[in-house]
Amino acid sequence: MKLNKILPFKSPPYKKPMELGKYIKEYKIPIRGVIHVGAHYGQEVKEYHACSIKNIVLIEPMDKAFRKLQERFRGVRGIILYNCGCGSKDHMSLLNTETRNGGQSSSVLKPKEHLKFFPNIKFNGSEVVQIQTLDRLVSFMGTTRHKFNLLNVDVQGYELEVLKGATNTLKQMDILILEVNKVAMYSGCAMVEDIDFYLKDFTRVHTNWIKDCYGEAVYIKNKYL
User: Fold this and answer.
1) Which tens digit of pLDDT belongs to each residue from 158-175?
2) Beta-carbon neighbour count of residue 21 at 10 Å?
3) What is the pLDDT of residues 75-85, one digit of tens each?
């Protein structure tokens, strides 16, 4: 199936645009494939394809969002789907869900400052989801795991836990795109400084801040700087 035959989709509010092509060109990093944790409805797939990325893994724990992924990308060559979340260990977890933002603000962490910055988004539901380490998921890919060198993680404050479960996977990554926080949008979420400190082999080169509280950060492996 060609990309232009994928079912049309309108992004929910507050979805941040990516500028992936800009960083690939600026740092001269050829991207073999991308692993996207917290893929939601797969809004970024069009941009991945525009950047000539042929190998794509989409990981999404919410049932409704995963069904949408199946509808949109069934038969699309090079796309692999996993219905789970990622963290520092394998376990079952309760996901705090909302619908106003299309489920994009749902998190395994309880909302905190998010309620102040976005009072119209109500977390009035929950869903039990499976959490696995990214290293475990990648191990299932066998020899194809080496096709991926870009990691995108957008999991509403749980990003550091995903990274802790991706020790081996991070070794093969050249670019990371992570949601980061200046304030505690969710209870117990890592701050941007915590993620900077953890990623000793990477440097944060750009952050697109939203409302001066959270944003999308780009990290480049130090050997390219």
Assistant:
1) 999 999 999 999 999 999
2) 14
3) 899 999 999 99
